[in-house]
Amino acid sequence: xxxxxxxxxxxxxxxxxxxxxxxxxxxxxxxxxxxxxxxxxxxxxxxxxxxxxxxxxxxxxxxxxxxxxxxxxxxxxxxxxxxxxxxxxxxxxxxxxxxxxxxxxxxxxxxxxxxxxxxxxxxxxxxxxxxxxxxxxxxxxxxxxxxxxxxxxxxxxxxxxxxxxxxxxxxxxxxxxxxxxxxxxxxxxxxxxxxxxxxxxxxxxxxxxxxxxxxxxxxxxxxxxxxxxxxxxxxxxxxxxxxxxxxxxxxxxxxxxxxxxxxxxxxxxxxxxxxxxxxxxxxxxxxxxxxxxxxxxxxxxxxxxxxxxxxxxxxxxxxxxxxxxxxxxxxxxxxxxxxxxxxxxxxxxxxxxxxxxxxxxxxxxxxxxxxxxxxxxxxxxxxxxxxxx
Length: 389
Fold this sequence. Notes:
globular; alpha+beta; 7-stranded mixed sheet
């Protein structure tokens, strides 16, 4: 007998939580974790064999009847009326950062806490030789700041079965999916190419084949063939790609914004000690012109991949750092926030310079393109060392 396991991220709501304890800073209230499985429903039944069948089978039909398809962790969330957090304002240089951080920004905003508080980790971004660190919030920071405990969930049944069970317990599931089937990526990957990304599933109806989810900078819905695609219905269960998933246990009582600021300042000091020992912008600056010459030989599609993993990553990272410092104490950290914004803006202009250089096969302009960022990084670290180091 063999079993297939994978991992899923779930957000668990505390058993006594109600809309009144979810805070007032976010867009939506949370639901009571005990509402949906205690009224005659049972836990996810064991499959009839070691290899569970896909949705639509007799075994899965029992589960679909047990779970109310209208259940949502954030019941007021609607794709047509969702208002993203200000960190995703279209007026920002980088309205989207990466799928994981963007998802947490919106989930925390919906929970009713300040997403800006978690961003001190951006100090640790490094140049890794072929890319900048794909920055992700450390899970221990989420626990210290908000009382949010993120845990992996083993998948031994279909992804839908597990997600429905967790939604019924008030948990937001964060699941890796193929962006080929995500309509919010239209013009980028939707129906064009396959890509790995993470979404937060807030509503799921396997009978109607609909799903509502947080992704990137907002909240969306998909259905029909896209639903079948993200859950791999055309592929036999044992041959499906196994997505990584987590769950986050949310607190019954949310911390005040003052409490979040106090913890965020402590975390900023800790992350400062974890910063790269060598200026990563200087290291990248030295390698940049030569790398771009090779990129130019690979065509436009490869250029976009390179730009996303280099200039976009450090540009978005330092724009978030600037917002974090401004939120923490706009007066005390004014100089460091301005320096971080310099890196953000320099990355934006460098991206355009890079595109022209690749198109014209002329790379002279790249030799000095990143000098403002190199100097700004040093200013940030020197200033913060004197204030929180």
